[in-house]
Amino acid sequence: MEKALRAWLDAHQLPAIAAAVLGVITTLATLIVLGFYFASKP
């Protein structure tokens, strides 16, 4: 697992890491907003 992760990081470098982090943040933010929206509906 660690070797695969290191190989992926070496192959993709910073742009892919930044894109992955932004994707995760965007997904979590969307899920949180939708969760609050549906929870607050009567």
Q: List the secondary-structure elements in sequence, H or E.
A: H
Q: Helix count, per DSSP?
A: 1
Number of strands: 0
The coarse overall form would be: elongated
Total domain count: 1
Distance between the termini: 46 Å
Description:
By secondary structure, the protein is mainly α. It has one domain. 93% of the residues lie in helices and 0% in strands. The protein has one helix and no strands. The termini are far apart. The mean pLDDT is 89.
Topology at a glance:
Blueprint: H1 2-40
Fill in the keyword field for this structure.
1 helix; mainly alpha; 42 residues
Q: Gist?
A:
The protein is mostly helical and 42 residues long.
